[in-house]
């Protein structure tokens, strides 16, 4: 795996590159990238599509969530607030399987939302048919 990655966010209708972030492929870098997307947009949770890198679901859920207090039951120590993920967050992964450099299969995983909601977002937002090996989102 390379020492340097480029995270890219592409707007679906125009193909405009909205956000670019260079750095190591770490959870901290992914958090910075996703927070930049949120800060530079209307803050609404868009559709995110990515490869199968494990930190992405946690980063997205942490960025597009808020803490809600748990009502005090009257006894004992008050409970910690719970994290509530934005219901509009839709996230899917596309994992390419290769053997000796040749594509032998594609696995699709729906992480947040339903397959129907994700396909509907792709159709209505005009998402490009081909995406690179990077984090992309539909805003």
Number of E-type strands: 8
Bin the helical content.
10-25%
SSE pattern: EEHEHEEEEHE
Low-confidence stretches: 129-139
**Rg (CA only):** 17 Å
Strand order of the largest sheet: 7-6-3-8
The main β sheet shows up as:
4 strands, mixed
End-to-end Cα distance: 29 Å
How big a fraction of the residues is strand? Answer: 35-45%
The structural class is: alpha+beta
Tally of helical runs: 3
- Summed up, the domain count is 1
Structural notes for this entry:
By secondary structure, the chain is α+β, with helices and mostly antiparallel strands. The chain has one domain (5-64, 83-138). The chain contains three helices and eight strands. Strands 7-6-3-8 form a four-stranded mixed β-sheet. A hairpin with a 6-residue loop joins strand 1 (5-10) and strand 2 (17-23). Helix 1 runs parallel beside helix 2 (55-63). The chain starts with a strand and ends with a strand. The relative contact order is 0.23. Mean pLDDT is 85; it is low at 129-139.
């Amino acid at each position: 795996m390379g020492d340097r990655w480029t995270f890219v966010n592409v707007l679906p209708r125009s193909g405009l590159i909205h956000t670019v972030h260079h750095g190591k492929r770490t959870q901290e870098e992914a958090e910075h990238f996703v927070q930049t997307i949120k800060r530079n947009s209307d803050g609404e949770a868009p559709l995110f599509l990515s490869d199968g890198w494990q930190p992405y679901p946690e980063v997205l859920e942490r960025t597009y969530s808020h803490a809600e207090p748990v009502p005090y039951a009257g006894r004992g120590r008050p409970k910690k607030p719970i994290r509530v993920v934005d219901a509009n967050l839709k996230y899917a992964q596309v994992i390419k399987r290769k053997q000796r450099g040749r594509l032998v299969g594609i696995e699709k995983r729906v992480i947040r939302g339903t397959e129907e909601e994700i396909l509907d977002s792709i159709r209505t937002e005009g998402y490009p048919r081909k995406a690179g090996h990077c984090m992309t989102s539909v805003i």
